[in-house]
Every structure is written in C-alpha cells, then in structure tokens.
Design brief:
It is a single chain. This protein has about 500 residues and is an alpha+beta fold. The protein is built from 16 helices and 23 strands. A hairpin with an 8-residue loop joins strand 13 and strand 14.
Length: about 500
C-alpha cells in the first residue's frame, strides 16, 4: 500500500517536488530554479518548456532522495504560481510565446481601455477582482493580439490556455497524447474570466476580451482525480490542484471561516477564509476561491496580494550586490538598531492590495548621509511587514472581525528579525508551524483526500503543530508614528509612469 503523497510546487523562481508521509512530515524535497526573463522594463517572462523540464527533474530527484518508487505515492497534487499565463498549440505541445508572469505589467494599456467604460471595478461584482495587470485574462488577449497568427489558430480551436497548473497537469497526463486540459476553481478565479457564483467561465467577459471558449480548461474541484500520470509517474493519480496561496491556506488547515494565513515568498499573500459566503471587498482586497473538495460546496476567501517582498531581498542580492545570499539580509539588518528613518516601497510592478496602482514605481524615502547599507537592509525587511499591515487593516474592515493571531509560512518566516517586527507592527501574535512549507503540503493534502489517503479534514488538523510564536513588543505610539511615515512614503510612488510612457498594444 502506498505510504506517501507527492506535491509538485511550481513557483515564480523555482520548481520543487516534495514527498510527505501520513503525518504531514517532509520525507524528501528536490528543487531547481528557472530563468527569469525581462525583455523590457515591466515585462517578466518564463520559458514554459524549461518549467516542464525542471518539473520532470525534481520529481525524479525527490524520488531518488527518498529512495522510493513512484508506485509508493498514493497520489500527486499540483500547486503553482497563479496568473502566470501559458498559451500553447494542442497539436505540437509547444507554447506560442514565453509564459507571461503574474508580475508583468505589459497589459496596462488593455486594462486602461477596459476601465474607460465602468471603471476599475467594472467586472468586480462577477469575478471579485479589480481590472489590473495581475490577472491572466488580459495576458491571453495580449498574446492573441501580438503573436503572429495566434488569433486565427485560437479561433480554429488549435490553441490551449492555462495557468501553470493547467500546463503541468496537461504534460503530466500525456501532453499531445491525451493530456487532460483542466484547472481548479482557485486558479480559474485568478483569470478574471470566471463567475464566482456559477464557478464557470463567463461568456460576456470572454467576448469582451476576445478569448475563444475552446482555449479554456475545464474547471474542476481542488481535490478530485483529474487523470493518471505518464512517464515517471505512470499510473499515479493526479488528484489535487490549488493556486499556491490557496494551497498554503489549505496546508495551514484554515478550514473555518475567520481563520487566516500569510505566505512570505516572492510576494506576500494573506488569505482569510470566509466560508461558503462570497464577501465583496470595499477596501482593495480580492474576493477569491479558497478551495473546493470534491462535491462539497466551494469555500471562498478574501485575499490581500502584495507583489514584492522576498523578491526585494533578491533584488538587494542580485541587482545591488549588497549581500551574496538572501539569508545574509538578516545579519546585515541587525548591524543597526532601527531603519535610520528610511522607508523602501518596492512598487517594482506597481502596487497591488490595497491600492491597485499599476503606474506606481519603487521609492526609497528618508535618505540622509547617516544611512548605511544596514539601514537599507532593515528597510527592505520592514517593507514586507508594513505592506502586510496595510492588508490586515483592509481585511479587518471588510470582514468586520479583528484578527487575533496570524499563521505564517514561506521562505521568509525563518527570518527572526522580520517575524518579530511583523508581530510588532500588527499588534498580534505571529505563529510559525512546524512544517513551514505549507504550499506544497496543501497540494499534497488535496490529492491525498481525493484518493482516501486522508479520510477527512479533521485528520489534517491533527497534523498541524506550532513551531514558534512571536508576540508584539513595540510601543503603540511608536508603531503608529512609523506607520504614518510608511504610508507617506507609499504616496510618493503614485503616478510615476505617465500615460505616454505606457507600453502600446497594437490592435
């Protein structure tokens, strides 16, 4: 009998395969980075073929490390960077263009055109999202408008679209030889094309964006068997699919309305479970799908999405060379007692929640001759905490419930200085679980539930255990004064890109 469940975690900067046992403990992990492609300012791309190659390599690598066979896996789940858009030829299996990454801002002009009639919230009542460059639908339109011959091929039924989950599942289950073309409700809810109430593609929005319905994957539950693997995973059920942030919500076992988690990765994403209720946001948050288990009712969530957090540390490393490794940022920040009056607002891809300002650009405010690289490093870490505070304020306003503690996960939660500061600026305890890589765990849980490896969500709750808790220690007056300065710095990023500088999109 299979003793393990696998999870393919395809992220923004790397892909990994993780293997878990029945208690939710990590048995093995294999991870590889992939290239970040920046053709123009504001443009971010990935090579879908490279992502698929890395996916195959990490699956084999993790099985080798665990010294097990694929047949020891009861099922495999997928979790993925959301909104990153792939369009490929169903006959050849080749992408017609590099994947356009969620951070990419090239669809700014398309967004502005749509917003002229009805404003930024034109589609929000149906899809729960503002018009923004973040989401997949406008990226598909851009490809159909700009890749030679793409629109004709799409209308002939020869092109397929998917977020990265769809691309991976299609390839895992056979690709051109019978690959399954599906997505789940969580990924579909990030396209700006799915109606939150019906959980189906919306014909009116497809018409608005000029996207043929034949390109779109079938929308499934987050936990059900989609098909069987081929190749290395031959015969293994592919049975879980969750966008990365919803997977973390699932892995943190936030199964009750009112429970929330924050994931610290390339960006930062806070999700609050709102149960079976669709809660419209009036404070700049996204209304999204939390998860759907089999035939059970869908669970919804409010989300605060921040574009740049861990990516800012990478920028400090790769672009400025202030540190050689990302983990060195903590030691550098500890060389000073405070930020020296410096605030760093990383609006590299505009500002996401709660502002949704695609024309904003990054700003370092408060510089004096006194400032050292230690102060810059500290401001880099504090930027993550302050952005999270803004999202939490919006969440409290929308939900009417004040959060009493925050469960955290992702790579940055091992930065003790950041976690303490996060608790200080929120004024609530911050709790790290024993298995902090809850994104992959959530995908594994969804797959395992679908095949009966775990019987019910109560089994998953029993697996969750606290590793460490940070409690607030900053004086409230100091906190609120610094927060005012942060918000002042944020306003300095607004309206940086002027209309005539924005990328033109040919008709």
């Amino acid at each position: 009998m299979a003793q393990y469940v696998g999870a393919l975690d395809q992220g923004t900067t790397s892909t990994r395969f993780m293997i878990f046992d029945h208690s939710g403990q990590v048995v093995a992990i294999h991870q590889k980075e992939h290239e970040q492609i920046y053709p123009k300012p504001g443009w971010v791309e990935h090579d879908p073929a490279e992502i698929w190659a890395r996916s195959q390599e990490v699956i084999t690598g993790a099985l080798d490390k665990a010294k097990i066979k694929a047949t020891d896996l009861a099922a495999v789940g997928i979790t993925n960077q959301r909104e990153t858009t792939v369009v490929w030829d169903r006959k050849t299996g080749k992408a017609i263009h590099n994947a356009i990454v969620w951070q990419d801002t090239r669809t700014d002009t398309i967004i502005n055109e749509f917003a002229r009639d009805g404003g930024q919230d034109r589609l929000r009542a149906k899809v729960g999202l503002p018009l923004a460059t973040y989401f997949s639908g406008p990226k598909v339109k851009w490809m159909l408008d700009n890749v030679q011959g793409a629109r004709a091929k799409a209308e002939a039924g020869d092109l397929l679209f998917g977020n990265i989950d769809t691309w991976c599942i299609w390839n895992l289950t056979g690709g051109v030889n019978g690959g399954v073309h599906v997505t789940d409700v969580t990924n579909a809810s990030r396209t700006m094309l799915m109606d939150l109430a019906t959980l189906d593609w919306d014909n009116e929005i497809l018409s608005l964006m000029g996207i043929p319905r034949s390109m779109l994957p079938q929308i499934k539950a987050s936990s059900e068997v989609y098909g069987k693997g081929v190749g290395t995973l031959a015969g293994i059920p592919i049975a879980g699919d969750l966008g990365d942030q919803q997977a973390a919500l699932f892995g943190q076992t936030c199964f009750s309305a009112g429970e929330a988690k924050n994931t610290y990765g390339t960006g930062c994403f806070m999700l609050l479970n709102t149960g079976t209720k669709v809660v419209p946001s009036k404070s700049g948050l996204l209304t999204t799908l939390g998860y759907k288990i089999g035939d059970q009712p869908a669970i919804y969530a409010l989300e605060g999405s921040i574009a740049i957090t861990g990516a800012l540390v990478q920028w400090l490393r790769d672009n400025l060379g202030m540190i050689a490794k990302s983990e060195e940022v903590e030691a550098l920040a500890k060389t000073v007692d405070d930020n020296g009056g410096v605030y760093f607002v990383p609006a590299f891809s505009g500002l996401f929640a709660p502002y949704w300002r695609s024309e904003a650009r990054g700003v370092i405010a408060g510089l004096t001759r006194y400032v050292t690289k230690g102060h810059i490093a500290r401001a880099v870490l504090e930027a993550t905490a302050w952005q999270t505070r803004e999202v939490l304020d919006a969440m409290n306003a929308d939900s009417g419930v004040d959060l009493t503690a925050l469960k955290v996960d992702g790579g940055m939660v091992y930065n003790e200085l950041l976690m303490q500061f996060q608790s200080d600026v929120l004024g609530v305890p911050v709790i790290r679980p024993k298995v902090a890589e809850t994104t992959a765990l959530g995908a594994a849980y969804a797959a395992g539930l679908a095949v009966g490896f775990w019987k019910a969500v109560d089994d998953l709750r029993a697996n969750w255990a606290k590793d460490k808790e940070w409690k607030p220690s900053l004086d409230e007056k100091v906190r609120e004064k610094e927060y005012r300065l942060w918000k002042k710095a944020v306003t300095r990023t607004f309206d940086w890109v002027e209309a005539e500088e924005r990328v033109p999109v040919p008709a």
